[in-house]
Design brief:
Helices cover 56% and strands 13% of the residues. With 311 residues, it is of the alpha+beta class. It folds into 2 domains: 2-119, P-loop containing nucleotide triphosphate hydrolases (Rossmann fold); 189-240 and 247-300. A hairpin with a 2-residue loop joins strand 3 (61-67) and strand 4 (70-76). Helix 3 (135-146) packs across helix 4 (148-184) and helix 5 packs antiparallel against helix 6.
């Protein structure tokens, strides 16, 4: 809070020491220096750039404001402005000789001014506050007064996040569409896998049938050899003459052996017949398995092993 104002050689004010409170009213006739008091406070807050405000006949002015525990002093001559900042706890004041046209940050802090702008000064012939400024400036000022600027900042941040999330959503939607398109390439994969398992099972069954057919062929070959031996034996018996006793005895033994062999041959013939029947069944099964395998390959459209198309 402002406590005191001290002015030396500023416009029409040659010397002034004024106590200030929460509300200070200055009265007096026209041209008595009332507006000069307000302009002196503004000069400290804004660093008035012109030396023309120095009282006529003087070389510089000095204005000092006491704000809480600080004393802010501005000295302005023909060449430059110099700020002094004093605190009761400091042994010596801080001096700012290169202020230029601006106000040092430490001075702004000591005066309790906001970072985005100082107080508004309105003089006798000025237009009413905010009526001669752009709409954006009106919005900014009113927002700062009502804390609506925080709401506006939050709205801008929310809009930024919404835009960012909208962009991310579009990217994710494209990724989803691409994934669904790739997934369609695998439609029917489960059915093809089942058909492939069935084809492999039929191929394994065909291998087993071929092994059984090979074993039956071996039995048939043995039967044919036995049949040939029987035929040759019967032919030799038919061509022989009346035998003597020794021959008869030999023939009896041979006949017994032949009976045994004939029984074995008859058993082999029966096995050959059975083997041929089984061989025919196995060959029919193999043909059916080959047809089913070919039908499955045509249904798949390609070979499950090498991937080449089937026509």
């Amino acid at each position: 809070m402002l406590k005191t104002l001290r002015v030396r050689n500023f416009q029409s004010i040659k010397e002034l020491d004024l106590g200030l409170g929460k509300l200070t009213v200055i009265t007096g006739p026209s041209n008595s220096g009332k507006s000069a008091v307000l302009r002196a406070i503004k000069a400290v807050v804004t660093n008035v750039p012109s030396p023309s405000v120095v009282t006529a006949g003087q070389k510089s002015f000095v204005i000092a404001l006491t704000v809480d525990d600080y004393v802010v002093l501005l000295e302005r001559g023909e060449a430059k402005s110099t700020y002094h900042l004093q605190n009761a706890a400091w042994p010596t004041p801080q001096v700012f000789t290169k202020a230029g046209r601006g106000v040092p940050k430490d001075i702004t802090t000591a005066l309790g001014l906001p970072a985005d702008g100082g107080p508004h000064f309105t003089f006798q012939f000025d237009k009413p506050y905010l009526l001669d400024v752009p709409a954006t400036e009106v919005t900014r000022a009113l927002s700062a007064l009502t804390n609506a600027d925080m709401v506006l900042a939050a709205a801008r941040e929310a809009n930024r996040r919404r835009t960012t999330k909208g962009t991310e959503l579009k990217v994710r939607q494209r990724d989803k569409a691409d994934a669904q398109e790739r997934l369609q390439q695998f439609d029917g994969l489960e059915e093809e896998s089942l058909l492939l398992d069935l084809a492999e099972s039929l191929l394994d069954g065909g291998d087993q049938k071929r092994a059984e057919a090979s074993a039956l062929r071996t039995v048939v070959e043995r039967l044919e050899i036995a049949a040939t031996a029987r035929t040759e034996l019967l032919s030799s018996l038919a061509a022989s003459t009346t035998p003597d006793l020794g021959q008869i005895t030999a023939l009896v033994g041979t006949s017994s052996a032949l009976s045994t062999q004939i029984q074995e041959i008859e058993a082999l013939v029966e096995k050959r017949t059975t083997a041929r029947r089984l061989l025919a069944v196995a060959e029919a099964e193999e043909v059916r398995a080959q047809e089913e395998r070919r039908a499955l390959l045509e249904q798949l459209g390609h070979c499950p092993t090498c991937g080449s198309p089937t026509t």
